[in-house]
Structure formats: C-alpha cells, structure tokens
Input
Amino acid sequence: MHYGYIGLGNLGANCAACLLKGGFAVTVTDLDKGNAGALLDAGAIWADTPAEVAASVDHVITCLPSPAVTRTVLLEILPAMQAGANWIEMSTLSRDDVLAMAALAASHEVRMMELPVTGGVHLAAQGKITMLAGGDQDLFDLHLPALEAMGDQVFHIGPLGSAAIIKVITNMLAFIHLKACGEALMLAKRGGLDLGQAWHAIKASSGNSFVHETEGALVLNGSYDIGFNMDLVLKDLGFAMDFGREFEVPLDLAGATRQSYIAARAAYGAEAQSPMVVKLLEDMLGTDLRADGFPAKLR
Output
C-alpha cells in the first residue's frame, strides 16, 4: 500500500515516520520541505504539491492545522486522486466539517475516513498514539494495518462524525485536567511542600491523570513544551461548546476553562504552548512552579 501524507507538523511527521517503519511506501509534502528531512532520509518520496501526492499514491492522509486549510487541500487533491482512492483525515474537525467534506469527496467518488488521534506528540513518535477512526467498516478494515503502524490503541468509534465527537471530548477533558493540575501544584507550592515530592504523591494517588504525568512534568521543568498551542486549544474547546449547545449539555467546567485559555492567549500569544495556562496562575500570584529532575520534552 502506498500512502500520501500531507502536513508534516509535530504530529504528521511522526505518524508518517511510523508508516515508513511499518514498511509502507510514503510520499509526503508540506509547505516547508525542511519538515520532511528525516522522512526523506528514511525513504519517503517528496512531492512538490498536494496534487502531485494525490496523483501518485493509492490513498491520501492529511494532517492539517484547521478546517479551512483542510478544505483548501482537499479541493486540490480530489481532482488528482486515483480511482478507488480513499482520503484519511487526521485533523481535529467539527462533525459538521467532517460530514460536509465527506460529501465533497464523495462527489469525486472518493471515500473518507476520519482519524483524529489523542495522546500527544511524544506518543506519536513512538507509534503509541491512540487512533479514533470514524467511517465505514470496510475502510477501517482496509487501513487497519496502517493505523496499527501509527498507534498502539485503535478504536473504530462508528460512522463518519463519531470520531469528531469523541476527539473533542478527550481534548476537553485534557484541557480541564491541565488547569486543575496547575491549581493543585500551586496549592502544594504555597502550602510549603516540596513540589517534586508532591508531583510523585499525586501520581500515586486517586487524583492522578495522564495530563498530570505528562504536561504537569513540563510545567515543573518550566519549558511548557507539549507541541500544542493556544489557538488549537481554543479551536477544540469551541467545538466542545458547540456540541454542548447542540446536545443540550451544560458544560460548566469546559466554559470556565475556555475563559482561562482566552486569557492565556491574550497574555502569551496564539502560538504559546497550552501548558502556559498554568503560567497565567504563576504570574498572577508571583509564584513559579519549578522542581529539579523534570524533563523539558516528553520522550
């Protein structure tokens, strides 16, 4: 199977690398060819445009920063895709975006599978990210070997649009957990506790979370570098609030958390790393959350 991979950011480059390690032929492109350097060294083929990718492969995977960018790329690749080709979209989109773009693809006789992922860039680099597929069962079965090359936990959530809902739910929980983690660590610091010991005690407690173990460690290091920026957080929390209105579910915690991230973006900029929502609390109280022995990056 020969896959095209369009979009080589923090997530896409790692997932494309896992496909290569899994023995798949991969043709790649990105706005910045420099993002493809390690992939080309590992055997990937470069194409100058998304249309060139689409014309030369069996199936196309995209991993792009926004619905608008995804639609732009989709309009470019659809006329070039080979008969019987599938489009696999790994970005976080709203359910309405998924269904609208699937209909657009179908008008060109191209079938879509949505494939948002969760777990973080460091797990993508290890081929251990969680994959959330939405679409027809036969497409899921066809592409399962590729999915298993990229992730170690693969879920077929249901028909198109299903994965968009669960991905937004998982991200919403992560952002809430991150804000709660920052508040907990601040209580520990201002309560006079050793922050390193406090972090380990929380990790061993009923209050532990994946976010505490990962992003909490980056806060204590002071790098905050998770590879996920404020604009992406607010995009996803916007999707969550939209679902809350549609499904008539009050999202009190998500709404309050969104306000904190709006303030953090205003303070540090759209490209600031998402754990810097905790720095907002540090700056407000004039108290930093630092401890020795914590990593600057997750591996």
Q: What stands out?
A: DSSP finds 13 helices and nine strands in the chain.
